[in-house]
Design a protein that fits this description.
single chain, 119 residues, mainly alpha, c-terminal domain of poly(a) binding protein, rod-shaped
Length: 119
Amino acid sequence: MARIKRSVAARKKRKAVLERAKGYRGQKSKSYKQAKEQLLKSDSYAYRDRRNKKRDFRRLWITRINAAARKEGMSYSQFMHGMRLAEIELDRKVLADIAVRDPETFRRFAERAREAAAA
């Protein structure tokens, strides 16, 4: 059986790895071995941080809603409970955006939430 020469495939593979590692510091962008190792780490960081990004944004939205709710004399949990009782189904992303861009509308939501919680 004839042996398989893989110089073209191997060069293509190494070239692809070095292409992805462009912009890395030092030998991590020039040496195939170090570039390959750094790409493994980079990919695992990217995977992890795609999940952490969701967590971070949710924390930011909750912080913004809490700040706006406290201006209206309510805590975050009281506000969200009142929103659920008032059957206003807006997610935290939209509520945080309203709290930042349109305080008057947020105040009306807070009033509705307060009335629903009191009833």
